Amino acid sequence: MSNELTTVTTPAAEVDLFRMGQVLADSGYFQDARQAAQAIVKVMAGRELGFGPIASMTGIHIIQGRPAIGADLMAKAVKRSGRYNYRVTELTDEACSIDFFEKSAEAWQPIGTSRFTKADATKAKTKNLDAFPRNMLFARAMSNGVKWYCPDALGLTTYTPEELEGIEAAPIQAPATPAPATQPEPTFSDLAETAHDLPRLTDWQRKALHAAGAAYYGKDWDEK
């Protein structure tokens, strides 16, 4: 009976995810998710962190094929973990310093400090530093602190959009000869074999796209 129930409910959940992605993309409110597949990837990334669809759409950005998580979502994940906490001890236009804590025997123990200065930001070529210095410094200090002291508070690699903006995408090589017009449409299995040639597509993104395709076309869609 449990197997039959799984067969019935799982595709329905995936269809709902696909429809949600389509609605979010069609809304036009999210500049970096104009296609349903892009919205689905962002929502699935947010689910891994325990965030809802709108929080995921506004707080998670896919930059050069990598999930970049907004500092506000990182901070929320740390606070609600129950195991970790933080306290901002310095926040000026020149520097941001954040102390991180871990709960041990019902008491909060300091585990480290993350400090990011204007000089660090200039060296890292952080954008928008002149317009929003405290926001940029906080974002980088938070990202570093999470990576250094409490990476398990998040299920994904902790990058902020500011960290990935300066990374240039690897060029995608065009095929030597164009495919003939009569060539049959490639199946998902064909695409999976050559997915390593696409530098912007990660394993978890391929999984998300496969789930969306299976939900929309049926579980055997890759054999069609």
What does this structure look like?
The chain is 47% helix and 17% strand. It contains nine helices and five strands, in the order H-H-H-E-E-H-E-E-E-H-H-H-H-H. The chain has helices at 2-27, 36-49, 53-59, 71-80, 118-123, 133-149, 161-164, 188-193, 203-217, and strands spanning 60-63, 66-69, 84-91, 95-104, 107-117. Strands 3-4-5 form a three-stranded antiparallel beta sheet. Strands 1-2 form a two-stranded antiparallel sheet. The protein is globular and about 45 Å long.
SSE ordering: HHHEEHEEEHHHHH
Share in β-strands: 15-25%
Gyration radius, to the nearest Å? 21 Å
Uncertain residue ranges: 1-10, 166-180, 186-199
Shape: globular
Task: Report strand order across the widest sheet.
Answer: 3-4-5
SS-derived structural category: alpha+beta
Assembly annotation: single chain
Number of DSSP helical runs: 9
What percent of residues adopt helix (DSSP H or I)? 40-55%
**Major beta-sheet overview:** 3 strands, antiparallel
Mean pLDDT score, rounded? 74
Ends distance: 29 Å
Number of strands: 5
Topology record:
Layout: H1 2-27, H2 36-49, H3 53-59, E1 60-63, E2 66-69, H4 71-80, E3 84-91, E4 95-104, E5 107-117, H5 118-123, H6 133-149, H7 161-164, H8 188-193, H9 203-217
